[in-house]
Description:
Layout: E1 2-11, E2 14-19, E3 25-29, H1 36-48, E4 68-76, E5 79-88, E6 91-96, E7 99-101, E8 111-114, H2 126-140, H3 142-163, H4 170-208, E9 215-220, H5 232-253, E10 264-269, E11 272-273, H6 274-277, H7 280-302, E12 307-311, H8 319-331, E13 336-340, E14 352-357, E15 360-364
Helix pairs in contact: 2-3, 3-4, 4-5, 4-7
Amino acid sequence: MRISHLTINNFRNLKKIDFAPDRAINIFCGANAQGKTNLLEAIYVLSAGSSFRSSNDKQLINYDAVRYHIQASYSYQERDFTSSLSFSNNNKIFIVNNKKTSSHNQHRLKVVLFNPDDLFLIKGSPAKRRSLIDFVLQQLSAEYTISLANYVKILKKRNLLLKKEQTNQKSFAIIDQLFIESAVSVIIQRINFINRLDEETALLFKEINAAGNQLKIRYALSFPVESDKINLNILSKAMQDHLQHIFPEEIKRRQSLIGPHVDDINFYLDGRPAKIYASQGQQRNIVICLKLAEIYTFKKIKGYYPIFLLDEVLAELDEEKRNLLLEHLQKAEFQSFLSSVNFNPPPDFDAAIYTVANGNLLGKE
């Protein structure tokens, strides 16, 4: 997937951006608060339908305007698409090839985002790791999008019954069974994806980690499974058994205590938990590999690459890791967009470098 043309109107401080990106690497340089991150954010919003920085679309509209509009022309698998997203008066309109549709349209722009917060992914909260996996899986699979939405809806109903102390009613037993079924559907899809991600990450880690450490990624369930095998029946039985065991505690706390909403993803470096034993540099190296692995796993599943967005991460890496990442991007077959305050390219580095100032794209160096 490659963007051939991008227009952005009245998105944050970007009043009018109109340009044709390079097919490979595009780097936006400039001082802080000039609009570099806003450019990447606009691409992300067009893909996801929401921002990675704000949950309020009104905050994304330029202060002199009442509406923002983002449009991109792109191609993948020998097909051309144009999609746009507009927001005004609390109304969001998403269009693909001149037809109004939802932001979950299968032909929407697909992206993988790498921002400074991700550098703390390993030792950060489980919610952040779950969000990362959910975002990628929802781009990969309409089935997963439906499964996750269904689980969230049933989880809310179950929690409401627990809060109202209505657990003795027949309706709770029905909700309980639906809760298990929807949870297991989400878990199975997550585990399958994590297993594929683990294979890619292990290979990439050896490539850009000179120390030769071994990296493993495992899905961490919130309930025990007394089996070496994992399938729908085994997970359903294990979850049902544990729900019975912790039911008194759930009644006491009035909330569901197990399920995909509290599961986690664990990273192991040479067999030991990376969040405890890996250095800060090693943890950052793991995250770099994880983001690249997302892209290559996406390609293996869908047959094409997503767009790679890297927001202000180069300054967070030491020179060796920064050069290894740039070297990998230069050889890659996917399109990348990077923002950077100070960019000093390594020798023989080839990229389209743009200057951003006061919300304007001044040109390519």
